[in-house]
Amino acid sequence: xxxxxxxxxxxxxxxxxxxxxxxxxxxxxxxxxxxxxxxxxxxxxxxxxxxxxxxxxxxxxxxxxxxxxxxxxxxxxxxxxxxxxxxxxxxxxxxxxxxxxxxxxxxxxxxxxxxxxxxxxxxxxxxxxxxxxxxxxxxxxxxxxxxxxxxxxxxxxxxxxxxxxxxxxxxxxxxxxxxxxxxxxxxxxxxxxxxxxxxxxxxxxxxxxxxxxxxxxxxxxxxxxxxxxxxxxxxxxxxxxxxxxxxxxxxxxxxxxxxxxxxxxxxxxxxxxxxxxxxxxxxxxxxxxxxxxxxxxxxxxxxxxxxxxxxxxxxxxxxxxxxxxxxxxxxxxxxxxxxxxxxxxxxxxxxxxxxxxxxxxxxxxxxxxxxxxxxxxxxxxxxxxxxxxxxxxxxxxxxxxxxxxxxxxxxxxxxxxxxxxxxxxxxxxxxxxxxxxxxxxxxxxxxxxxxxxxxxxxxxxxxxxxxxxxxxxxxxxxxxxxxxxxxxxxxxxxxxxxxxxxxxxxxxxxxxxxxxxxxxx
Length: 521
Known about the structure:
Layout: H1 2-5, H2 11-40, H3 44-51, H4 54-82, H5 84-111, H6 113-120, H7 126-158, H8 163-187, H9 190-211, H10 227-260, H11 264-299, H12 303-330, H13 332-340, H14 347-360, H15 364-379, H16 384-408, H17 412-432, H18 441-465, H19 474-495, H20 502-512
Helix pairs in contact: 2-8, 2-11, 2-20, 3-7, 3-11, 4-5, 4-7, 4-10, 4-11, 4-15, 5-7, 6-7, 7-9, 8-9, 10-11, 10-16, 11-12, 11-14, 11-15, 12-15, 12-18, 13-14, 14-17, 15-17, 16-17, 18-19
């Protein structure tokens, strides 16, 4: 039974699975936020909870995520084609080294946590500082767990195993929900931190099970002089540097957010989680599904195939993310009220979070495209170009947060975020265009034109729907409004014969397990 579930699948199957499970994962993630918001609102408690992720995430992102996202899979996949024994040495060296490094850094951070937090959050109250110290120490173990889980996840993707990779985020969010529901009465906001640990362990375990159904052989071996491992180190440092800048930005968001207003950081993170729903569902899912195939095409020097896969993925991402932007901008307050409203999340919390979400929505297409464009460079074993661009884009975000937000309002958090990602996409397109072969410009422009018409129709339907607001209960009206907007977009796209509509029918067929002729999605 398990062997039928944990097996290699095509790019079409991978896309279908990742889109569906990403939707489920983020739906559960929004339920997680709803539960936390209901019990704790936008307050000092939720600010401290969000701040407690900074150090554990920094340890993981700086030393592991950079290697995995940019370097490990291209190198491991190449070795897997040539010599599996050597490929296993590379993977084992990466996994064992990562555990040792993250474990050691976690221990050091645990010991000096008092000094780190008091220095980093000097303007927070002593009570807030102590909560951040306690929860950060609890979450440090999750850095080690995610190090193991994400290394295994990249091995699995190299084998074209996507099921456990896509299910693990669902289990992670479920762990946080369980921790919060059952423990919040006894330990308060700490219940969510305990949930992080529970979710992280389950996140890792399902991938370990999936790994048993590949021919990968784990062994405790560390060969730091192995040419494959050395190549990973050479490729990973630019990505690690980019992630360092992102962690600095997260720190700036945290410090400035806590300083600007009570609950400012929490409102920013609630809005960010809703904005990232579309980014994850369409940007990350599609880019993740296609990445192993981009790597294979680049390794085999099939640049026409490489270009075709990049172009189709870009068009598919835009097809889903542009209407996501329009819909969220027009319905930001109803969406926040529908998802998070109630309990401690009062009207002031709704207004603050919806304001941030309104401007955050603008970033959805740009951030989504950053995932496929970055991976296109990584597949070509070019990690430096995205790094240089990213450094500038992160500097733009930091400038807006530090200098403009205190003067003009917290909405400059998401505005600066959008400007930074726009710059990233603009530069990536210019520099990647030189490496693409036979990019079909006319097809691309025609596709964009059809999308814009469909979005105009959707915007008109949403605007007209406000005339019927008094005929329905508030929350039911908001739900019907969203359904009407989405339906009008997809119906218009079908009438205009947008080729990207085929993605929807494919995903539905995969969910219902119907046979399909379009395995080249």
